[in-house]
Amino acid sequence: GDAVAIFADTRPEWVLADLASACAGLVVACVYQTSSSDEAHHVLENSEARLCFVENEELLERVQEVQGSLERLEHIVLFEGDPPDGGMTLDDLAERGSGEDDQRLDDRVEEIASDNLFTLVYTSGTTGPPKGCMLTHGNLRAGLDMFAEAIEVGEDSIFYAFLPLAHVLTRATELLALDVGATIAFWQQDKDRMMDDLSEVQPTHFAAVPRIFEKIYNKATGEVEGGVKGKLFDKAVKTGLEVRRLERRGESPGPVRRGSRRPRSRTTRPRRADGHHEGQAPGGLRQPSGPLRGAVRGGVGRGPRARRRAVSAPG
Q: Do residues 142 and 311 touch, judged by C-beta distance below 8 A?
């Protein structure tokens, strides 16, 4: 299919654009939000993207600087801010498609095969211009199945999204969360408030690079250093490491080491006139009581048809 690009930081709209494009049989090219105009131009030109989802007016300026030399780029969809002449907002795009028959979308989903191209993930470009890694629907499906077998994940899981969704690790965890019906909580795009995010969300899964976990550990140890709290913290860390070692060997850590998790209660909230629950924004975005930007509630992964909409199953 034709290619579209997403030039934005990690946020709920990124996921909506990604899944909508996948359902339509399009190929998504990922542009890191830190990319310069020239770097964005390379991805847009190399992928031959006909449409580009752009986060805000700041990133829009970078696209506009090079738009004149991008012959294939026809449309720009802005997540926030005023769209340029000839462009549109995400709401405008949704409105344009509101009259389409659902059967037409279902037919396009059914036509997607496992060997169809799903996305172009670009390298960091440390040894030259970034190269697009071609991943098919089957590639992603196999990866999700591997993740599901390797880690404990389910509907009660909460994934904290922090790394760029242009990075394949975050992209894979996003799709895994949706595939199993879990929740994705998005960071506030402020590194100084990341610890506040984690404290509020209490995620069960957090995909990040080692340096991030080092900072979390150092902050925790600094607050409880010495005394009874320090000893309890050290004991908790040792117990956690032992539990993981046993689980990786396929052994049970036992109820004492592992502890017990109380099932999350699922309450029914009243619906507004527009059909959404109280506290829920249109488009499946949850607005939490705290300062977080929002969360996408899983459910795409429930049922065979819904799973195909996240990532097409092989065959």
A: no
